[in-house]
């Protein structure tokens, strides 16, 4: 695990005064500096676009009880016997469509976001990144920040909308690691930022710029969010409302209508509607020109680059649609990083 900032120089504990330093017992453990750490966390991704790596990743991801809320006794046989026997091959093929020389887009973009955030925070904080599943685990990220002398840590789950399957799962993993620490750091978790004006302005500016560069004028703007089982809405998960609010507020900032939809259906249960694929097909049949944005993702990934930008486009055009554009996520763009830096600085108030 790497941190982007300078490494800590271990300091001698201040239990000793100047005069006693020379006589310090060799056995006294080093006491590190009091730095601030920021841990950016995203979902995680396979290490390679191959069935075996995808299977390993999916086994961990889909065994999280925050993600699939079924009793293990029922779910694990289905997961091991059916899902992990079929899905990795299919998903690996999809990953191969979007894989880059730097690896999975999600991993590469998250790394770049951490570097850029470190550059903009300068000496004020040490930045590291971690993934909830797969390589770069959260525990390693926290340990790296502790080793760099951070006694105060801000964990920033890179999910604009709160969802138990994502935000709460990150928090669970952080707390599980904290429970193993003797000397815990002070901890803050970045709240959801979907309706923060700075987030909405960044989305609007990125969208406006991208649309300005198109050779057509979209008549419909679709905001596609990752889906969730509908029952989670009735169980009190605020995700649905936060997605709808993001689309509505983004539309207000833009002065245009933004139509929300939900993608990436998984399993047999009823998921949130309207479904992005059905919506794109319907818009295609009407001969529309659309721009699709994915304001539930802080970084482009399989779900945006393959499902929307490749498959969504094909579906839409095959149904008779005129023009299609996928608008990239904020990623490590200047406007995205300015927004993230501002959110992080606000959240560090009183610490900085
Ligand atoms: C942005 C928020 C996300 C929510 C909410 C979410 C819920 C959720 N996802 C699955 C199942 C899968 N998701 C997969 C990929 C994936 N999911 C998110 C984000 C959210 N998921 C991202 C950023 C990614 C992309 C990862 C990447 O490597 O690029 C996958 C894996 C791919 C595949 O096989 O299709 C699955 C499976 C469930 C079941 C769920 C909530 C119940
Ligand atoms: Fe997902
Ligand atoms: Fe709602």
UniProtKB/TrEMBL annotation:
PROSITE patterns to which the protein is assigned, alphabetical: FERROCHELATASE
Q: In which pathway does it act?
A: Porphyrin-containing compound metabolism; protoheme biosynthesis; protoheme from protoporphyrin-IX: step 1/1
Gene Ontology terms: biological process:
heme biosynthetic process
Localization recorded for this chain is:
Cytoplasm
Annotated positions binding Fe(2+): 226, 303
Question: GO molecular function of the protein, one example?
Answer: metal ion binding
GO CC annotation terms, alphabetical: cytoplasm
| A Pfam cross-reference name | Ferrochelatase
Q: Give the EC number(s) under which this enzyme is classified.
A: 4.98.1.1
Q: Does the keyword Lyase apply?
A: yes
The first-level EC class reads: lyase
Please provide the record's keywords in A-Z order. Answer: Cytoplasm, Heme biosynthesis, Iron, Lyase, Metal-binding, Porphyrin biosynthesis
Catalytic activity annotated for this protein?
Fe-coproporphyrin III + 2 H(+) = coproporphyrin III + Fe(2+); heme b + 2 H(+) = protoporphyrin IX + Fe(2+)
Kindly give the PANTHER family that the UniProt entry links to this protein: FERROCHELATASE, FERROCHELATASE, MITOCHONDRIAL
Task: Identify its protein family.
Answer: Belongs to the ferrochelatase family.
Matching HAMAP family: Ferrochelatase (MF_00323)
> What is the recorded function of this protein according to its Swiss-Prot or TrEMBL entry?
Catalyzes the ferrous insertion into protoporphyrin IX.
The name this protein goes by in its record: Ferrochelatase
Organism name: Sphingopyxis panaciterrulae
């Amino acid at each position: 695990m790497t941190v982007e900032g300078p490494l800590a120089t271990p300091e001698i504990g201040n239990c000793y005064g100047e005069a006693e330093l020379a006589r310090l017992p060799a056995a006294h453990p080093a006491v590190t500096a009091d730095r601030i750490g920021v841990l950016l966390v995203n979902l995680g991704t396979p290490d390679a676009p191959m069935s075996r790596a995808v299977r390993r990743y999916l086994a961990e991801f889909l065994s999280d009880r925050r993600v699939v809320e079924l009793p293990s006794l029922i779910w694990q046989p289905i997961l091991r016997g059916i899902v992990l026997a079929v899905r990795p091959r299919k998903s690996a093929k999809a990953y191969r469509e979007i894989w880059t020389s730097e690896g999975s887009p999600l991993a590469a973009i998250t790394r770049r976001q951490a570097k850029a955030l470190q550059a903009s925070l300068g000496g004020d904080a040490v930045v590291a990144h971690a993934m909830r599943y797969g390589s770069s685990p959260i525990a390693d990220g926290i340990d790296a920040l502790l080793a760099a002398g951070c006694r105060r840590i801000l964990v920033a789950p890179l999910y604009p909308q709160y969802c138990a399957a994502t935000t709460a799962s990150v928090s669970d993993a952080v707390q599980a690691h904290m429970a193993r620490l003797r000397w815990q750091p002070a901890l803050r978790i970045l709240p959801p930022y979907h309706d923060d004006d700075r987030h909405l302005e960044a989305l609007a500016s990125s969208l406006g710029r991208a649309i300005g560069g198109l050779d057509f004028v979209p008549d419909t703007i679709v905001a596609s969010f990752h889906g969730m089982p509908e029952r989670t809405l009735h169980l009190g998960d605020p995700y649905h409302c936060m997605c709808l609010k993001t689309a509505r507020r983004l539309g207000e900032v833009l002065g245009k209508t933004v139509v929300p939809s939900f993608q990436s259906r998984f399993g047999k249960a009823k998921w949130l509607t309207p479904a992005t694929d059905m919506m794109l097909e319907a818009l295609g049949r009407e001969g529309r020109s659309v721009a699709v944005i994915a304001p539930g993702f802080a970084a482009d990934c399989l779900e945006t680059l393959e499902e929307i930008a490749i498959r969504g486009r094909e579906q839409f055009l095959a149904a008779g649609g005129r023009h299609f554009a996928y608008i990239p996520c904020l990623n490590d763009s200047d406007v995205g990083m300015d927004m993230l830096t501002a959110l992080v600085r606000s959240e560090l108030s009183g610490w900085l």
